Amino acid sequence: MAKSEKVRLAAVGDLHCLKDSQGALQKLFAEIPPKTDILLLCGDLTDTGLPEEARILAKELKVAVNIPIVAVLGNHDYHSGKQQEVEAILSEAGITILNGEAREIKGIGFAGVKGFPGGYGRGTLAPWGEDLIKQFVHEAIEEALKLESALAKLRTTHRIALLHYSPIQATVEGEPLEVYAFMGTRRLEEPLNRYPLTAVFHGHAHHGSLEGQIANNVPVYNVSLPLLRAKFPDQAPFRLLEIGSGAKE
Ligand SMILES: [Fe+2]
Ligand SMILES: [Fe+2]
Question: Which residue, 58, 106, 147, 226, shows the most beta carbons closer than 10 Å to its own?
Fold first, then answer.
């Protein structure tokens, strides 16, 4: 990326595409601000993880969006046990789905992973006791390791991390306290702190908070569609980030 060149990202998550979403999503995508260079989708792309829903979404994106799209899947995309099919349908439509991989697009590095729940701070579930508890925590650790290996591959000046679950508690606040542990886990924050990042985007916490920071002050944006709609009722429901004009350049 040339020093004077700016790349504009628009991010949203939790589209929850249904079998009858045809038309409705095109309307949403038509609101993507002009001059956006890359669209980021932070999981829960489909509502119940059905291939039919993925096909509708792929069609809607194809009609309405002609810029690169980078995405991660969310827990809803796993609900029917057909996540591989969902991923294949969306990949065939040209969407870059990241699941522990890294990609460079327009000079910006992207690392993405779905993530997993598990809690924050004192509420972080530990791998202790029953096998099922250990397996649960192991899955969260695996997702954090996948994120780490994706981040390690990037050599770009600007690096963006994409997740579905939240790596920090700050962007979950607003949800009932009882569900914090299901919104994500601080285990996902550990790899993020080890790499120079420009920003982190996630979804999943529909009633959380818009912004927070990981320990090394990198901004974290919750871009869940219901949250963006609730907080900015008069604006297009996308979080915009222009890269290339900041101090890092
Ligand atoms: Fe969601
Ligand atoms: Fe979700």
Answer: 147
Which DSSP string corresponds to 33-65?
A: PTT--EEEEES--BSS--HHHHHHHHHHHHHH-
Q: What's the number of CA atoms in the CB half-sphere (13 Å) around residue 34? A: 0
CA 155 to ligand 1 center in whole angstroms? 31
Show the tokens assigned to 171.
Answer: 């962007």
- pLDDT per residue, tens digit, the chain (249 aa), is 555 589 999 999 999 999 999 888 999 999 999 999 999 999 999 999 999 999 999 999 999 999 999 999 999 999 999 999 999 999 999 999 999 999 999 999 999 999 999 999 999 999 999 999 999 999 999 999 999 999 999 999 999 999 999 999 999 999 999 999 999 999 999 999 999 999 999 999 999 999 999 999 999 999 999 999 999 999 999 999 999 844 443
Compute the distance between CA of residue 198 and CA of residue 120 in angstroms, rounded to an integer: 23
CA of 12 from ligand 2 middle (Å) equals 13
Q: Closest ligand to 47 CA?
A: 1
Q: Whole-model pTM?
A: 0.96
Residue 17 CA to ligand 1 centre (angstroms): 10
The answer to whether 102 and 151 are in contact (CB under 8 A) is yes
CA of 18 to the centre of ligand 2 (A): 15
Ligand 2 centroid to residue 217 C-alpha, Å: 25
Distance 164 CA to ligand 1 centre (A): 8
The ligand that comes nearest to the alpha carbon of residue 12 is 1
d(CA 12, CA 27): 14
